[in-house]
Amino acid sequence: MKYYLPIHLDGGNRGCEAITKATSLILNKDKLIAYSRNLVLDRKLGLDKYVDLIQDKEENMLFKAKRKIACMFGNYYQPMTFKYHYHRFVESMEKDSVMLSTGGDMMCYNNNQVIYTNELAKSRGIKTVLWGCSIGKENLTSEKVNTLLHFDYIYTRESLTANLMEEIGCKNIGLFPDPAFILEPLECQLPACFSNGKKVIGLNVSNYVVGADNLSTTQFGNALKNTIDYLITETDYNILLVPHVLWQVQDDRIISRVILGEYESTGRLSVLDSGSLNYLQIRYVISKCHLFCGGRTHSVISAYSTCVPAIALGYSVKSQGIAQDLKLPMETVVDSKHITGKNELLNAIKYGLEKHDVLREHLLEIMPTYKEQVYGVKDIMKNL
Fold this sequence. Notes:
14% strand; 7-stranded parallel sheet; 5-stranded parallel sheet; single chain; alpha/beta; 43% helix
């Protein structure tokens, strides 16, 4: 069986790397073909050892000119762009193959290429699966609902999304943990902050979570600054900032460097060189943290899967749903988009530190069975 992954995008988002690698392990005797926007990077991250990578088209000068003109006509731009990038890849799919629409939370945002590729594949008679998804009710549009009903199977990664899919009338729904839970850390050299005997708190933030490229103009930014101030003055923990998405338009390293600049003189903060590490190596670093606090879902999954107590900086259904399915207290989830005061994040961190041993023991107990559940989707694929 051949499986095609048009929405792999590229490993500049280490979460995309994680999903693709894990999917290959789940479907280990089948052939996977992934569409890559950055072939050089994906090969550097070792993705070519898991899947066959197909190069994205380069945007030539003629296409850029057409795109500029198309922008003047509003909604015409997206379909033209999606056709340019994805039409040939979807047309190359064999009729008895399956298209896996990955990306986790792609349906949490605007109408996008998930809809385009699914409708095109279905028009060619190809089986399609929405793979490891999270969707909130507030994210639904008529176009999304229409294409959700067209998928042959929907693999949800948490129960809140599974319930929503049933509510809108989808029939073939499965609930399994996110594919990335099964990945094993890959040992690498740890940053210097681990070498002085102090415990390390890992922190992943992005400009999307903070709401700006600084800590002073948003409520969450102020809450984050208040938390770091407390950890610096009232504890002896080191803080390691862990960038996880390195795409140009949403590069976690930007806000990480801003934070480092504010606290560098303390000698207690550092930034992980995530650009030189793949997802499995970043997971190894996270696994050595005493506590982890993250905005990117797949950075938090690395903590959960290695039984590191974590605070999820949730801004959609995915964070709450995964924590709920893991039977974790909701005190470990902070809604970064609707934070109520400057102490909300600090209180969550304090809770995580106070309940550290209890949370770790719980994860150690639940995680083996939880991870094993992922492989249940393989039988579904065989019978699709």
